[in-house]
Amino acid sequence: MTLAPAKVACASGPRIVQERGQREVFCGLTGIVWLHRKIQDAFFLVVGSRTCAHLIQSAAGVMIFAEPRFATAIIEERDLAGLADIDDELDRVVTRLIERRPDIKLLFLVGSCPSEVIKLDLSRAAQRLSQRMSPAVRVLSYSGSGIETTFTQGEDACLSALVAQAPRAGANQPPSLLVVGALADAVEDQFRRIFAQMGIERVDFLPARRAADMPAIGPNTKFLLAQPFLSDTARALEELGAQHLPALYPLGVEGVDDWLGAAARAFGVSRERFEAATAAPRARAQKSLERLRPTLEGKSLFFFPDSQLEPSMARFLSRELGARLVEVGAPYVDRRRLAEELALLPPETPIVEGQDVERQLDRVRAARPDLVVCGLGLANPLEAEGFATKWSIELVFTPVQGYEQAGDLAELFARPLLRRELLEA
How many angstroms separate the CA atoms of 266 and 223, rounded? Predict the structure, then answer.
């Protein structure tokens, strides 16, 4: 079965096929599941329907007696009928929430896709509530609507809202490094230690663990993207004068080397000091990959578009583990932010931006790859057809960035192949 594109983009770099059709992907609301764990004094209040509440609850796997830092303000029938003023209702819900949870310092109002929610001006509501509750609580808003965002773009929208309210740094501020993208605390600590060993002391992370720790941003801020799906956030930072350091993303040994190397070059770190800081963790990472390479070498992989991590994962699996790429799909391909990744993919690799799920299912059935990386909605039906699958959602929920996590990342892909071998035996 051949790839029949509606449009082909090939002005520079690899050939990218653009497909438009039915999609199978979570909406941006799911980003709350990892963001609420990262910002420890923030709360995410989704303004939406019961469907939104069920989605978040299911994605998080939260038990009924847990008290997480997110909730849904559900639009009821009386709201739709105009029996209640929606702004008054929202103010009432927020006031009750803050009274119950005085530990909240940052509140996000998160828009969803029901038409009655789209009509609400949540940005104005956030301004009104922020003025009323300042300085104890800051209120921001962003959209996680499935009409506007896919799975990981909710994080991009959230961080863009943070950047818009960030403190401004003047031109006289000393140079600083900003790492952009939600990382597990253990991964953040590992990177912070390596930067310190390299001699880069002024390092901040976005999002910060506490709302009050949002760094000042200005012309002497240099930033690294830890995730490839933060296009709007990167643009917002550049509008404040910050400088992006282009690099591979910190996935696998090659990716981490290049990512840390970009910071080292920008801050004048010598080659000797860089090697001293990275040699030991690099060696551990290479050893962990050697153990898993025999399982993945030569295996064919097919990526359905889901998380926007697909090009980076494909580069890692192809170059460091010897996997063969049948097709690499991504919901959106930002050619500027992914230029380094795309340049290292095998030139014959089909890269598909967007989705026509029926066409992609036809192609995966024709190719019969050894492993299919896809969303939850497709994994079980494909397993029933005899395919080995990997849930792409795990690639976002699991700490995979950095040297120490390289083996864990490879194991995510190796595990379904090993399980299939055991079942066949």
Answer: 10
Whether residue 164 is contained in a domain is answered as: no
Residue 155 lies in a domain: no
Tell me, letter by letter, the H, E, C secondary structure of the chain: CCCCCCEEECCCCCCEEEEECCCCCCCHHHHHHHHHHHCCCEEEEEEECHHHHHHHHHHHCCCCCCCCCEEEEECCHHHHCCCCCHHHHHHHHHHHHHHHCCCCCEEEEEECCCHHHHCCCHHHHHHHHHHHHCCCCEEEEEECCCCCCCCCHHHHHHHHHHHHCCCECCCCCCCEEEEECCCCHHHHHHHHHHHHHHCCCCEEEECCCCHHHCCCECCCEEEEECCCCCHHHHHHHHHCCCEECCCCCCCHHHHHHHHHHHHHHHCCCCHHHHHHHHHHHHHHHHHHHHHHHHHHCCCEEEECCCCCCHHHHHHHHHHHHCCEEEEEEECCCCCCCCHHHHHCCCCCCCEEEEECHHHHHHHHHHHCCCEEEECHHHHHHHHHCCCCEEECCHHHHCCCCCHHHHHHHHHHHHHHHHHHHHHHC
Record the tokens describing residue 230, joined without a space: 């933060």
Range of the domain at 17: 7-24+288-424
pLDDT of residue 282: 98
For residue range 206-254, list pLDDT tens digits in order: 999 999 999 999 999 999 999 999 999 999 999 999 999 999 999 999 9
* 105 and 204, same domain (yes or no): no
Which among 253, 280, 134, 125 has a CA at the least distance from the CA of 194?
Answer: 280
Q: Are residues 338 and 412 in the same domain?
A: yes
Let me know whether 397 and 310 are in one domain.
yes
CA 147/CA 355 separation, integer angstroms? 15
Q: How far apart are CA 338 and CA 152, in angstroms?
A: 16
Q: Are 205 and 221 in contact (CB under 8 A)?
A: no
Q: What is the pLDDT of residue 425?
A: 57
Instruction: Tell me the whole-structure pTM to 2 decimals.
Output: 0.91
One-letter amino acid for residue 261 of the chain: G
> Consecutive sets of 10 residues in the chain, 425 residues long: mean pLDDT of each?
36 73 78 89 89 75 63 67 65 92 94 73 90 93 81 92 94 95 96 98 96 94 97 97 98 98 97 98 98 97 94 98 96 94 94 93 97 91 94 90 97 93 70
